[in-house]
UniProtKB/TrEMBL annotation:
This is 5-methyltetrahydropteroyltriglutamate--homocysteine S-methyltransferase. It holds the Pfam family Meth_synt_2. GO terms for biological process: methionine biosynthetic process; methylation. Residues 233-555 form the Cobalamin-independent methionine synthase MetE C-terminal/archaeal domain. Its EC number is 2.1.1.14. The keyword Kinase does not apply. It comes from Vigna radiata var. radiata. Its cofactor is Zn(2+). Keywords: Amino-acid biosynthesis, Metal-binding, Methionine biosynthesis, Methyltransferase, Transferase, Zinc. The gene is LOC106780750. It catalyses: 5-methyltetrahydropteroyltri-L-glutamate + L-homocysteine = tetrahydropteroyltri-L-glutamate + L-methionine. It comes from the Eukaryota. Residues 1-108 form the Cobalamin-independent methionine synthase MetE N-terminal domain. Pathway: Amino-acid biosynthesis; L-methionine biosynthesis via de novo pathway; L-methionine from L-homocysteine (MetE route): step 1/1. Transmembrane segments: none annotated. The lineage of its organism: Eukaryota, Viridiplantae, Streptophyta, Embryophyta, Tracheophyta.
Length: 567
């Protein structure tokens, strides 16, 4: 099997031609080799002819992500080419709907015969947790929800059951498994823990007014300038500070009930207080509380929102050696209580400087969770947006003047085909605006997007209408700012001035050099100074040294510009 998900992208003619060149050469070099080409995450669409004309014995297609392609594929298949039907979702955790999958399988059998059909998951099971049977704690994953799920081990079993159902082979009483599957899916459709009519009604009542701030940025900026009175090149960080072994140890002790919640919170308050006072000491302009109470930027919010459930062992690979345990969105999402207000209020009470409220945005929460598959993703995203909106309004009422909503997954969520971008970006931007448009002009909304290319979606970024956007720029030596400069981005920007994924401490001169490059393309009065991303994974020694250099660089540049104006 050779995986070729590239075949579901928008391809140029020379790229399509290259497939023929390469696979013809492989066939000549290895004439006895039987090759399966696997495509997934999208449909073949206009690349179908290229795929079916390759010298291969079988072609795998993703029926979960793009079921519409089945008819065209069946009508285009050359004689003898085997089709592998990806009917079980390899990227989500929900039990397969046997009735629906059988419709696809039977259609294929009637068209080309069962001997030319293979059954498989839609893609590699790398993206699925390993084994649902390991989830034995009913307090964490209640049986009613657990029965709706299938992890990698269970998905393989589903493939086997579908085979026998399609062949009408009653081996091992397969019919009873179909009846059980139908019963489980029916129970999910009528479950009282999934649906909340108030949330659905609230979603239906959203108007255009709910997606817009009171005034445009130009007018808001004047009010924020008077209210916040920040200096030129204001300094801040992206939010998190080092999650030290001591912090993780205290969290583990709380989980094991070796300490009380009060003892844990007292420890976190001490850590927060130290972080606030240290930031004051080195002269950072807009402070953060450090997020010591948070385990993960999505999991922390999912634990406090209704409609989410968690597991104990459902780990999946995120990148490199990093693994995550994504929350599962099983029902209508809403906020029953404030999530971050008390920690933000406490941090703000420790200083006269501004402390940013820190939230994860609706699109990122959606992208980094296992999402329910019984309603459109955009609808779930809007529910999350309303919950974040409520939190932002409460933060403002609590006296928090600057609130950051992180959306690093906006670009990650882009569909693979450009023709589908507009629809996705419309509802993704709308979700952000619903979340952030309930506050007064004087409240400054920040967003953070790390490690993304913005050229082709810059107008959508502008449509989000955040007062300040912070982005990764140090690796590109500020080249990513060109997109904002060419577009004449009107709002304020914090281009990251050093790479937080490296232990290397940047020098003051290096940071000044990057800021000088930044102000060549972006007016100085629009620029903020900050690291590329959060500092959760760094240690305190690196963090302190790097941030001191960053603050001093900003002060140096501030002084230089002031002196040049006076001259």
């Amino acid at each position: 099997q050779l995986d070729e998900p590239f075949l579901v992208l928008d391809l140029k003619e020379n790229e399509k031609s290259l497939f023929h060149t390469v696979y013809t050469k492989i066939g000549k070099e290895c004439p006895k080799l039987k090759i399966i080409v696997a495509t997934y995450f999208e449909g073949l669409r206009d690349n179908l002819q290229t795929a079916v004309s390759l010298p291969i014995v079988a072609l795998h297609i993703d029926i979960v992500r793009y079921p519409e392609q089945l008819d065209e594929v069946l009508n285009t298949l050359p004689p003898k080419l085997i089709i592998s039907l990806g009917v079980v979702d390899g990227r989500n955790v929900w039990k397969n709907d046997f009735t629906q999958s059988l419709q696809f399988i039977v259609k294929a059998i009637n068209k080309i015969g069962s001997e030319r059909i293979m059954l498989a998951p839609s893609c590699s099971l790398l993206h699925s947790p390993c084994d649902l049977d390991l989830e034995t704690n009913e307090k964490v994953l209640i049986p009613e929800i657990k029965q709706w799920l299938a992890f990698a081990k269970q998905k393989i079993a589903e493939i086997v059951v579908l085979k026998y159902l399609a062949l009408k082979d009653n081996m091992g009483n397969i019919t009873s498994k179909l009846n059980e599957n139908i019963s489980i899916h029916n129970s999910r459709k009528i479950s009282k823990i999934i649906y909340n009519e108030e949330i659905k009604q609230r979603l239906d009542e959203i108007t255009e007014k709910d997606t817009k701030r009171e005034n445009i940025f130009y007018d808001r900026r004047k009010k924020q300038y008077r209210s916040l009175n920040l200096p030129l090149f204001p300094t801040t960080t992206i939010g998190s500070f080092p999650q030290t072994p001591e912090i993780r140890n205290w969290r583990a002790k709380l989980k094991k009930e070796e300490i009380t919640k009060t003892e844990y919170n007292d420890f976190l308050k001490k850590e927060t207080k130290k972080a606030i006072h240290w930031q004051e000491e080195i002269g950072i302009d807009v402070l953060v509380h450090g997020e010591f109470e948070r385990n993960d930027m999505v999991e922390y919010f999912g634990e406090q929102l209704e409609g989410f459930v968690f597991t104990e062992n459902a780990w999946v690979q995120s990148y490199g050696s990093r693994c995550v345990k994504p929350p599962i969105i099983f029902g209508d999402v809403y906020r029953s209580n404030p999530m971050t207000v008390e920690w933000s209020k406490y941090a703000q009470s420790l200083t006269k400087k501004y402390v940013k409220g820190m939230l994860t945005g609706p699109v990122t929460i959606l992208q980094w969770s296992f999402v329910r598959n019984d309603q459109p993703r955009w609808q779930t995203c809007m529910q999350v947006a309303l919950a974040i909106r409520d939190e932002i309004i409460d933060l403002e009422k609590a006296g928090i003047k600057i609130i950051q909503i992180d959306e690093p997954a906006i670009r990650e969520g882009l569909p693979l085909r450009r023709i589908d971008w507009e629809n996705y970006l419309e509802w993704a931007v709308r979700a952000f605006r619903i979340a952030t448009s309930g506050v007064k002009d004087e409240t400054q909304i920040h967003t953070h997007m790390c490690y993304s290319e913005f050229n082709d979606i810059i107008h959508n970024i502008a449509d989000m209408d955040a007062d300040v956007i912070t982005i990764e720029c140090s690796r590109s030596q500020m080249e990513l700012l060109d997109a904002f400069a060419n577009f004449k981005y009107p709002n304020e920007i914090g281009p990251g001035v050093y790479d937080i994924h490296s232990p290397r401490i940047p020098s003051r001169d290096e940071i000044i050099y990057l800021l000088e490059k930044a102000k060549e393309v972006i007016p100085a009065e629009q620029l903020w100074v900050n690291p590329d991303c959060g500092l959760k994974t760094r240690d305190w020694e690196e963090t302190k040294k790097a941030l001191i250099e960053m603050v001093q660089a900003a002060k140096s540049l501030r002084k230089k510009i002031t002196e040049s104006v006076l001259l």
